[in-house]
Write a structure and sequence with these properties.
three-stranded mixed β-sheet; alpha+beta; Butyryl-Coa Dehydrogenase, subunit A, domain 1; binds flavin-adenine dinucleotide; Butyryl-CoA Dehydrogenase, subunit A, domain 2; Butyryl-CoA Dehydrogenase, subunit A, domain 3
Length: about 375
């Protein structure tokens, strides 16, 4: 079991030792970060949000943000895959029946199994709360039919938390703990070729009459929308943390470059007045990103009334700032950055995923405005 003491330091050391050596090849080959993922399992990180009574660390949303932030500084894809696993774990820990918690959570804590999220569909895009996938009752089983358009960690995670329309509760939604090798599951190959986040190996997943026993229905029938509310909170904070980590990495890279870039007259880029001001701006933005993420996670853990607004705001902020930071860092990196001799172009490519991942930047702005100004 991973202890929560000095968690940020542990996650940063983990990132340096077990994530960083593979980052370049993961991006180049668009392959899953298997080495780091296996090591996360071995070292107890997968059980971060598993309650102590089930053998986990008993961490909260703030711990989730801390680990995601620190790992993302070394590889955004690894952090994203890990983040999604944590989100599903938190959902099972919050809403699972006693039997489900006893079956799944100790295995998560031991690093034996991991999870992914199968929410998005092409029929609803970024509005992931409106799936088309159907259920039908067949004796003691349910049959799932539909297609999920993006599943990060597809075939690598053992189970997909799958969001469906309940066939029993009118208008209700469900989450199913779906084994990745259930009969009727088909992974569509050769689709993912992301601009960035290339190691998340996202795949469309078909559910062709997938027959699931009702023990895999998470919690109560029709309760899925409430469960998705919790999924969304950990997810949005997690994405805020991941993209704050990308911003921090871009800043550190630009800073190091400005110090080491020397001209014939002996001066460095870091001596130039405007460059110094740009560095100050980058630093300010990286601090602002993670400060709001940590504040939102803290407010959520303390169940404060404005936690939801802070959560939406932290991801809006992290998304806008990471794109600004990466663009300015690329400018400071000059020809070296543009010709890919610095990892800045990877950070820039990774950063752009933040604005489109559901709930997208636009949708979060709509949600935040609705939360601040409820319509009559
Ligand atoms: C790297 C990556 C990993 C992903 N992993 C997963 C995963 O593990 N599980 C999963 O379920 N999904 C995953 N997704 C899918 C993701 O969460 C979104 O569902 C998907 O990117 C939406 O794409 P779309 O083209 O269908 O969006 P669309 O719905 O077509 O939206 C396109 C654009 O239009 C804007 N837009 C749409 N409606 C409105 C509106 N009403 N007002 C204003 N603007 C609007 C959106 O903000 C967006 O910018 C992943 C996506 C990426 C990029």
């Amino acid at each position: 079991m991973l202890s929560l003491e000095n968690l940020e330091q542990k996650a940063a050391e983990f990132g340096r030792a077990f994530v960083a050596p593979h980052t370049e090849s993961i991006d180049k080959e668009a392959r899953f970060p298997k080495e780091a993922y296996n090591e996360l399992k071995k070292q107890g990180f997968m059980g971060l949000l598993v309650p102590k009574e089930y053998g986990g660390s008993g961490g909260n949303c703030a711990h989730h943000a801390q680990v995601c932030y620190n790992i993302a500084q070394f590889d955004a894809s690894t952090a994203l895959c890990y983040m999604m696993h944590n989100v599903a774990t938190a959902c099972i820990a919050t809403f699972g029946t006693k039997e489900q918690k006893e079956e799944f959570l100790p295995k998560v804590a031991k690093g034996e199994i991991s999870f992914a999220l199968a929410y998005s569909e092409s029929g609803s895009g970024t509005h992931f709360g409106l799936p088309d996938i159907t259920e039908t009752q067949a004796g003691e089983y349910r049959i799932l039919k539909g297609r999920k358009s993006f599943v990060t960690s597809a075939q690598q995670a053992n189970y997909y938390l799958t969001y469906t329309n309940s066939c029993k509760v009118n208008g209700g939604k469900n989450n199913w703990i779906t084994p990745n090798d259930a009969q009727g599951i088909i992974h569509e190959e050769g689709v993912w070729n992301g601009l960035g986040m290339r190691g998340n190996v996202s795949k469309p997943v078909q559910y062709n009459d997938v027959k699931l026993p009702e023990k895999y229905l998470l919690g109560k029938d029709g309760e899925g929308e409430t469960q998705a509310g919790v999924v969304a909170m950990y997810f949005v904070v997690g994405l805020g943390a991941v993209y704050s980590g990308v911003g921090k990495a871009a800043y550190e890279c630009a800073l190091a470059h400005c110090k080491s870039r020397k001209y014939t007259d002996g001066s460095s880029l870091a001596d130039k007045e405007l460059v110094r001001i740009h560095i100050a701006e980058l630093y300010t933005k990286t601090q602002a990103q993670i400060a709001l993420v940590y504040e939102a996670a803290r407010a959520f853990d303390n169940q404060e009334a404005d936690a939801v607004c802070k959560i939406f705001a932290c991801r809006i902020n992290a998304t806008q700032l990471v794109m600004d930071i990466c663009a300015l860092a690329m400018r400071l990196g000059g020809g070296k950055a543009y010709s890919k001799l610095l990892p800045l172009e990877r950070y820039l490519r990774d950063a752009f995923a933040s604005q489109v991942m559901a709930p997208s930047l636009d949708i979060l702005q709509v949600w935040l405005s609705d939360a601040l100004l409820p319509k009559e």
